[in-house]
Structure formats: structure tokens, C-alpha cells
Write a structure and sequence with these properties.
Low-confidence stretches: 10-35
Distance between the termini: 17 Å
Number of strands: 0
Order of helices and strands: HHHHHHHHHHHHHH
Mean pLDDT: 82
Number of domains: 2
Length: 247
């Protein structure tokens, strides 16, 4: 979990171009104008940094240059870069505003407690889930990439919206039949054992949030989400469920 709108784990096309293309030799056509877009943009930022430091920081070019440098490091040694390095809230908002679904999410969050407040809640919980899944950075990246690849943009945003809403303040505990149903597989049995006397309330909260999340999706997106969840490793599924019920 933790898509490209939340973290810096995916490279932009410009950054990928920088990593894959050598700078052309000098001579005719060898100026900045003839360079690939990623290289030309980086050189322009470096020129501004060296000649107009006020503009460099005012236009937040330092963050843009940091992205190029981070991508260089990721290309040379992927494990050297923290997969859950969070995007600045303004950068995240700008990415979301590029699509209809993203704009709808921005408007929804802005109309409530404010976009930044909701985003930071989602980023914090998503980072906690990824960190709990594995300490190995490569495994973290695989987990995050599988989340991005398995669902549509609309489905990912439904997950973000559900995280932002948080757990219910009250649920009616499930009965014994509910506990048996939840405990029909390894993950459910282990969680019930871990929750002990609170199991009935925790199971009810988990089902409440699952139903509310699926209600945000159309049928196709709901099936994609369930397929993704069913393919999770037991420790991954447990981590997500526990995070969603407030453990």
C-alpha cells in the first residue's frame, strides 16, 4: 500500500530519461535546447541554483532537483532509497489534480478538515503498514508496486478515502457465529487469538470498514481489490486488518 500519489517510490518519465540517456557531446546541437527533456530540465535548475538562489528556493526547485538526485541513487542502488519517503503535501495534491478522480478526492478532503490534514493521516498510516510488512526495502517496494498495479486509480483513491475516514467510534460486537466465520482461515484465527476479549469488537470493526470501503467502489474495482487482498501473504493481510481496526 502507498501509491505514487503518497510516496516518492515511482520515477517520473523525466527522471527515467535522465537515468537512461547520456549527455551528448559538445559541438553543433550540443546545447541545453537539444538535450533530452529530463537532462535539460536538471541543467536549467542547476543553473538557476548557481545564479539566482532566491528564485531557486521561491519556486521550490530544490525539491525538484532532489527528485532527480534521488532517482540517480535509486537507479544505481535501489536499496539505498527509502521506499516510503513521503511526498510533500503540495506535490501530492498537484499529482492528484491531474485526473478527474484525483480532483474529486482533493475536493472531498478540502471540504472537510482540509486536504493536508487528511493526506497526512493517510500517509502516516500507509507508511506504518509498509514498514510493518517488512524491514527489507526491496520487499517494501514489491508490496507497494503490487498495490499500484493491481487496482485502478479510482480503487486506490477509495482506499485512501477509507483510511482518511478512520475506524468507527462504535460497533456492535459480532456473535459467536461471526467469530467462527472470521476465524475460518489462518489470518482470522491468529487475529482472534491476538485480540483476546476484544475480538468480537475488532471483527465487527474490520467488517464495518471492509463494507464501507467496497461501497465506495464499482463492482469491477471491488473485485480487483478483493483479488489483491486474497493474494496477500498472511503477515501482510494481518498488518492491514490490524491497522484498519486501530491496533
Amino acid at each position: 500500500m502507498s501509491g505514487s500519489e503518497l510516496t516518492k517510490h515511482e520515477s517520473s518519465g523525466a527522471m527515467a530519461g535522465w537515468a537512461a540517456t547520456e549527455e551528448p557531446a559538445g559541438g553543433a546541437g550540443g546545447g541545453i535546447a537539444s538535450l533530452p527533456a529530463g537532462i535539460a530540465r536538471r541543467k536549467e535548475i542547476e543553473r538557476i541554483r548557481d545564479t539566482d538562489i532566491d528564485r531557486y528556493f521561491e519556486e521550490k526547485l530544490d525539491r525538484e532537483l532532489e527528485g532527480y538526485i534521488r532517482d540517480d541513487l535509486a537507479t544505481a542502488n535501489p536499496d539505498s532509497v527509502n521506499p516510503v519517503d513521503l511526498l510533500d503535501w503540495q506535490d501530492s495534491r498537484n499529482q492528484l489534480l491531474e485526473t478527474t478522480e484525483g480532483r474529486a478526492l482533493v475536493d472531498e478532503w478540502q471540504s472537510m478538515a482540509g486536504f493536508k490534514t487528511h493526506l497526512e493521516r493517510v500517509q502516516t498510516q500507509a507508511r506504518g503498514i509498509v514498514n510493518a510488512v517488512s524491514e527489507d526495502r526491496r520487499a517494501m517496494r514489491v508490496f507497494m508496486q503490487r498495490f499500484d498495479d493491481s487496482m485502478t486509480e479510482a480503487a486506490r483513491y477509495a482506499v485512501y478515502a477509507e483510511i482518511a475516514d478512520g475506524p468507527p467510534s462504535f460497533v456492535n460486537p459480532v456473535d459467536e457465529d461471526g467469530l467462527k466465520k472470521f476465524g475460518a482461515n489462518q489470518v482470522g484465527r491468529e487475529l482472534i487469538d491476538e485480540w483476546g476479549p476484544w475480538a468480537a469488537e475488532k471483527v465487527a470493526a474490520a467488517w464495518f470498514r471492509a463494507n464501507r470501503l467496497l461501497a465506495r467502489m464499482d463492482d469491477a474495482d471491488a473485485l480487483d481489490f478483493l483479488d489483491w487482498f486474497d493474494d496477500l501473504k498472511p503477515n501482510e493481510a494481518k498488518t492491514i486488518i490490524k491497522s484498519f481496526v486501530g491496533d
